[in-house]
Amino acid sequence: MDRTHTVVVGDRGRIVVPAEVRERSGISKGVPLVLLESSEGLVLLTREQLRTQVQDDLSGIDLVSQLLADRRRAAEREDAG
To answer: How far, in Å, CA of 60 to CA of 19, rounded?
Structure first.
């Protein structure tokens, strides 16, 4: 299955997402999409795809402990200064 598609920007900056891509991704009329812009390029995702990607990226990370450790270090610097 080919996952590379060429699209053309039309009038008013519009692009057409190929039908087979819309079907595989569950994109239908009115579905909000998120356009991520980075130094590497552009990525177009549904909100669900973005949520899944963020959850995968954060899995196994203990954000609460990291935040508490950061706050403790900041408090120590404030107390020392």
So the answer is: 36
Number of structural domains the chain divides into: 1
DSSP single-letter state for residue 13? G
Displacement of CA 72 from its chain's centroid (Å): 30
Instruction: Say if 74 falls within a structural domain.
Output: yes
The amino acid present at 25, given as its one-letter code, is S
Residues 17-61 pLDDT 10s: 999 999 998 899 999 999 999 999 999 999 999 999 999 988 888
In a domain, 2, yes or no: no
Q: Are 21 and 27 contacting, i.e. CB atoms less than 8 angstroms apart?
A: yes
| Residue in the block written with tokens 């609460």 | 64
d(CA 34, CA 22): 14
Evaluate whether residue 6 is within a structural domain: no
Q: What residue numbers bound the domain in which 22 lies?
A: 11-80
Cα(48)–Cα(41) distance, rounded to whole angstroms?
20
